[in-house]
Amino acid sequence: MSATAVPAPPEAPVAPKEETPFARFISEFAENKVAVAAFVVVVAIVAIALFAPLISPQDPYDLAQLDIMDGRLAPGSVSMETGMTFWLGTDDQGRDMLSGIMYGLRISLYVGVGSALIAGVIGTALGLLAAFAGGKIETAIMRLVDLQLSFPAILVALMILAFLGKGVMNVMLALVIVEWARYARTARSAALVETRREYMEAAKCLALPRWRLLFIHLLPNCMPPLIVIGTILVARSITLEATLSFLGLGVPITEPSLGLLIANGYQYMLSGKYWISFYPGIALLVTIVAINLVGDHLRDVLNPRLKK
Amino acid sequence: MSDITLDVQGLSTHFFTRNGVVKAVDDISFQVPRGKVLGLVGESGSGKSVTGFSVIGLVDPPGRITAGKILFQGRDLTKLDEGELRDLRGNRIAMIFQDPMMTLNPVLRIDTQMIETVLAHDNVSRETARQRSRDALGMVGIPSPEERLTSYPHQFSGGMRQRVAIAIALLHRPDLIIADEPTTALDVTIQAQILAEVQKLAREVGTALIWITHDLSVIAGLADDIAVMYAGRIVETGTVAEVLDRPLHPYTHGLIGSVPSRNARGSKLRQIPGMTPSLLNLPVGCAFRSRCPRADAVCEQDPQNTHPVEGRTLRCFHPQLEMVA
Amino acid sequence: MTTWMLRRLIQAVFVMLAMTVIVFIGVNVIGDPVEILISPEADQAERARAVIALGLDKPLWEQYWRFLLGAVQGDLGRSFVFNEPALKLIATRMPATLELALTAVLLSIVIGIPLGLYAGLKPDSVTGRMIMGTSILGFSLPTFWVGLMMIMVFAVQLGWLPSTGRGETAELFGVQWSFLTADGLAHMAMPAFNLALGNIALVLRLTRAGVRENLPMDYVKFARAKGISPNRVVFVHVLKNIMIPIVTVVGLEIGGLIAFAVVTESVFAWPGMGKLIIDSINVLDRPVIVAYLMMIVFLFIIINLLVDLLYTVLDPRVRLETKE
What we know:
The complex is a heterotrimer.
Chain A: H1 21-29, H2 33-55, E1 77-78, E2 85-86, H3 97-133, H4 135-150, H5 153-164, H6 168-195, H7 198-205, H8 210-246, H9 258-269, H10 275-307
Antiparallel strand pairs in A: 1-2
Helix pairs in contact in A: 2-3, 2-10, 3-4, 3-6, 3-8, 3-9, 3-10, 4-6, 5-6, 6-8, 8-9, 8-10, 9-10
Chain B: E1 4-17, E2 20-33, E3 37-41, H1 48-56, E4 63-72, E5 75-76, H2 82-88, E6 93-96, H3 100-103, H4 110-121, H5 126-139, H6 145-149, H7 158-170, E7 176-180, H8 188-205, E8 208-213, H9 216-222, E9 225-230, E10 233-239, H10 240-245, H11 250-257, E11 313-314
Parallel strand pairs in B: 3-8, 3-9, 6-7, 7-8
Antiparallel strand pairs in B: 1-2, 1-4, 4-5, 9-10, 10-11
Chain C: H1 2-30, H2 33-37, H3 44-53, H4 60-72, H5 86-121, H6 126-140, H7 143-157, E1 170-172, E2 175-177, H8 182-214, H9 218-225, H10 230-268, H11 273-283, H12 286-314, H13 316-323
Antiparallel strand pairs in C: 1-2
């Protein structure tokens, strides 16, 4: 897209350089340095979460490793017993905050990404079904979607956890119920646009079986908006789980996510021992903002392509 | 100079877009004497609307006037700042747009939109402004103007809305009105009425009028002079009678020839072959070259403005001196 | 107009009924009603008596009918913890939550619209870009954490504002309000702002989008061609057009704010409905949970109705259609 001040005289056209759509996507994405940095951060965070057991200085759930005498030490302090340095301080039980954060990331990501994926599969399936089947099925599904989306997420989650009790599985169930509707709506809109396109007509003319049409032809072309929504919903999922855990309604104390860690440190904030809440908070923040930045930029990169 | 309301000399307006420079208006010149009507004719994309916006100073980035003078009653509008231009707009120079549904603000009442125009240029009371608005509505033939004042635009029909726009344009008895395809969106009967109204009002008040359109038949009945635009340039000017009877430019020739009423019944409609060039990629030389039956090697040069006959200008190397069939 | 109102009221009744069914299923079918409705402190004999008293030995549909009858009369059970009618408990805490939510709405309009206007009118300026960048933070940062940080900075470190609680209140129309006292306002400042953050970002982006959408429109060009001052063009012509979608969204978000107040109230120990429900869930005080859910749905319905009414008032095109 260079600015030409002088109109070029007509010549024989030069053959365009061969570039796969994927390569083009990568180069367009790379134009925004902030998003690239955010992506690197996300990768780093996932790596930390995956390899936490290997790289964390301490296993924060192993009660044998904890010493209550090490409790509430400021960042940088050294343990009187083991001599290890607590880079980010300790909580009231003597747990190393750095290790706690790494393990907390695991849970946060597990619940957040897990629920977003499950909700994605269910929501996309229902959305595609609605677009494909049409008629009463479509109306029924979309009414359900509207109903779901008219309730605030936190309220629905609260209701479910109030009736079913706490626990990781219940939290994931609540998150899935809160999120599937957005996927369904996006999938249906994308499918409605795509079914009208020529390649779908062509495939139908070839009398391909329905499931083939759906999964091999339709679905891949609906992916771009779904990926964008997915990224944003992962961030929302993680935030919602953190919020629920902070309120004491989320994951149990034996598997603390970042939200629960923050809740634990809440009472110490007023006495100046900020690090118990602060550092898990930073970790949570960085994760969410990084994912959001990537998702935001993905949306910009993928969207004009859809219109072309 | 006192008899010429508008004197445009060598005006160029370019748009500096990411894809290149669009020469929407390229070195045009024309005059509109007091009380006369100039028909600015051309197909879409010929630059006629941009000409209108250039005169009233509403060309927005990425476009701007790059050359030329716009002498309005002797003052060069290109040298005025925004505040001075705003003083003139709606006051001494008014503009009427094409689609009245979109030009009137849908959420504001008619009286609000008229009163604010009065108050923008005259220090009078609201009541007086209201009176003037009511009178203006009556003048353009809107029945029961008092009730109509408190209505919203969507409660009017297309023709009525355009009359309101005309009434607004006339509120301060401007010296120049630029009408940008004001009747294109209306049906033929309403069109005729509006044309008659505007003509009458312009004659009464002595307003100079630039009527921008692509419809030759409208010009024939309304305008005194005509300027034909193609690809951002004025290719021919003259009085309406002369140009329509004896067009000199092959494009004008083609335009007149392609008017359906001029074609014998049953025979194929005549068309100008080819398509308007993209303003981003104009061919070198005469812009009409690729479609002109008379083009040859010399047309690769840029034709300049010539005066083949008294009172007419022409930008062509091969004026068509025969009559249109 | 009246047929429209009637239709909406019937819809509202249906939604409330649906809610009672959902809550009933949640309590009596999914959960164990014996566990849920009878205080965990009760012993065997008390339990047996309570089962009969609450009709838990009767068939389901009869239980539902009893529940519905009670609900219509305002009897939604008694709180285990406070030993008061659950609905009354919720009602006394409601003003605190409403105050918080409405202040948050006010803040989002007062801060969001001017910032959005600026970002829309000067999108390429440094300030404009900064505003848009910060707005992303506004809705991606977890509210509870921002609240914690606010307490840490403004209350603990700087000592400017009180960290928790509601402070002094004054009475108006028989209800206690915080905004009528200076101390109350100081206590309300952080929680209201914290709750408003996400909304401020939303309103900001909506306003900016509205401005960007409307500025190139014909009616703006026409207004300028009439010689109207640029201030009037923006603040009268453009603003009136973008207000309609903004007001609609803000109105619908009030419900979301009231729901999300549970988080802010927990962080700042603000004694509203939200804090009550969290505490109740934690101690399994189920009648209060039921009362809260019913009340929330009721509020939602009313808010939606009011927003629809407001919309007809604001948009003359809609208003005149409903008249006919």
